[in-house]
Write a structure and sequence with these properties.
three-stranded antiparallel beta sheet, 113 residues, 63% helix, alpha+beta, 4 helices, single chain
């Protein structure tokens, strides 16, 4: 039993019961969105597309792909900086995706009286 159920009783006024139902519905929607985001794979690239990084919605990186030409052209320090750039791009894209997916649930909460 979750906290929302723990406080709901038979003697609650109808308005409170409705509010509790709406909170439960919103929590269920947020949980569905979180599961969807967690399963998502998002890729980001360095500015010249020399490195591509893929990240799962959980924030775990799943793949780093480096153009072999970049390995010949740059030293280790430069490659590291390019990888960081691509990783940050992937994380930024993931954050945008999560915000877009979560926005409808949050907007619905703003409509409450």
């Amino acid at each position: 039993m979750n906290a929302l159920h723990a406080h709901q009783g038979q003697d609650d006024p109808p308005e409170l019961a409705e509010l509790m139902r709406r909170l439960q519905d919103q929590q269920a929607e947020i949980d569905r969105v979180r599961q969807d985001v967690d399963a998502t794979l998002v890729s980001g690239c360095s500015r010249d597309n020399e490195v591509t990084v893929t990240v799962r919605g959980t924030g775990r990186f799943t793949e780093v792909s480096i153009d072999p030409e970049a390995l010949r052209r740059y030293d280790a320090r430069d490659i590291g900086a390019i990888v960081v750039e691509a990783a940050n791009d992937a994380l930024d894209r993931l954050a945008q995706h999560a915000a877009q997916r979560l926005a409808p649930a949050l907007d619905a909460a703003d409509e409450w009286p």
